Amino acid sequence: MTPVSLHPQNPHYFLFRNKPTILIGSTEHYGAVLNADFDYATYLDQLKADGLNLTRTFTGVYNEAPGWFDITGNTLAPAHEKLLCPFARSDIPGFAGGGNKFDLTRWDDGYFRRLKDFVAFAGRHGIVVELTLFCPFYEDSMWDISPFKAGNNVNGIGDVPRAEAYTLKRKDLLAVQEATVRKIVQELKDADNLYYEICNEPYVCDGSLLEWQHRIADVIAAAEKDFPARHMIAQNIATGKAQIDKPHPTVSLFNFHYATPPDTVGMNYSLERALGDDETGFKGQADATYRREGWEFILAGGALYDHLDYSFTVDHPKGTFKCPPKQPGGGSPALRAQLWILKQFMESLDFVHMKPDHSPVKSVQPAVAAYRLLANPGHAYAMYLFGGTQADVTLELPSGQYRAEWVNTLTGRIDKAEQVTHASGEVTLSSPGYDQDVAVKIIRMGR
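Above: the chain sequence. Below: its structure as tokens.
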């Protein structure tokens, strides 16, 4: 089957298994494959039960140590000797993260069996995998436990400062990175529920690593050039917002982190490619914070939202861990249920023919309520309001009969429905009372 791709009629969205698709996830902290102790089958079963269709995971060339970032139960921090990565272990002890050093010239067949099974298992559940190939090293202590660092492999490769781990000038290390990409691409060539993200948060290093990222994108494209169908490539652009200048031609999806306010969508919508918010967190543990971020980004025209869900741990693969107060972010079964409501809301719309457009909105009262609107003028409108407890929305609509349904973002119930026969001009719709936020869809009936 053709891998998940940009929708041919509207490249701001996806096509997956012949259906227009929005990707919504709530992902463990990226260690599902690289952490040998993590029960990914139970985890993926839970995502399916939660009705979500996206997960993000790292390859293992970057990992963390317990306690970093004040994350309790961090799946990206394997226990002693439990790190799995593309490279086989040698017979020589001395890996800083526990166990023997790695041999960067030999592949670990067990790792690739696990990676392929993870992707295949997700595919059977209709879940798309964002496989993030690389991640920068935020501190020297993180570089100290990477297989790429010279002291952790038997090849003497990677005797460089951490800021130079991903550059074009370190030819021996670059050759290993390129070989790793080609190996992964070959192993996963038949997966339809997969795309590749070049690097997580490359902008935290000295410079943007832009040339190196483009080189890796070219390696992916070249490795797949003879495949019947090619996988999408994603590039992580910025935290918050940024305008993309001169996008690489192989990149289909541009990802952002903590993308509120979602001005980033408006700044880059003209690129005619998909935009994602594929990491949240570090804003406390309240479900409402991340529910709002998801609704706001998707209703602004985004195609993908993935919450960083700390309720998934090795001991709690069903996502039931209750985060302690010091945890930087949140996650819970309740939040995942709320994100499913967002996904269901979008799937109830012909969103491929909609785009962000605030021009039909003439007023929202009280002014405390802010909003985002997708529209196919004269046919369908989808609006998300946040702030206040009730709102009156005045829209300019063509003449016709419309059905308006106000959806409770906490429960998914339709709290109010009405049919409006409209001559043309302005019409005011009054929301039911709500707690923090509410959504409404307005669909023209008949022709």
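Helices lie at 40-49, 109-124, 140-143, 171-187, 210-223, 263-268, 287-299, 333-347.
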